[in-house]
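Why Peptidase? Reviewers of the renewal asked for a concrete example.
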Amino acid sequence: MSRFLPLFPLNIVVFPGEKLNLHIFEPRYRELIKECQENDTTFGIPVYLDKGIGDYGTEIKILSVEKKYLGGEMDIKTKGLRIFKIKEFQRHVPGKLYSGGLVEDVDTVQDDDPVQRQKIIELLKQLYGALGVQTLMLNLPPNFQSYDVAHHLGFTTEQEYTLLQCFKESERQELILDHLTRILPVVLETEKLKERVKQNGHFKHLPPPNF
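Here is what the prediction returned.
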């Protein structure tokens, strides 16, 4: 069933469960946030790409307003709730400055595969180790889902948007595994290249070949 949702298009992908801090400065979005606060309602962040506003986005709940500025700007903390699909977009909601639209909630399936998750863990350990960001592994919950690592895979916004449109966890796992399998050899080779560059000009102790 369709329902109305105020919309705040951004060139980012927000995943369900994600915490997001936003600085609100445009008058139209200050109005949107103010009304959501007063009415205890949510808004949506559809993904804005080069081709325009995508059909899918994430419903957002305001957790708190952290700071208000004299000029009307504000810093807010939010959380992603669920994925929606836009059925009818309104660039200007009648009588309002902001956009909106009729949306439908998207059902997602948590059919995660423990074996696939373990493969992802092993590849992430190699990737984060090569990049020197091993602390990212420490922050992952034991039974993490794809959304928990989605922003730490080196995805482009377009790739993150593709992930958002995978409504089964098993499909998201496959997408992540394919990505990691392709980029990891490139990253590891780049790190080897860095080491070779660093060694250039140093005294080398190299055993001669035995022939």
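The first strand starts at residue 3 and ends at 7. This is the kind of structural detail the renewal will allow us to pursue systematically.
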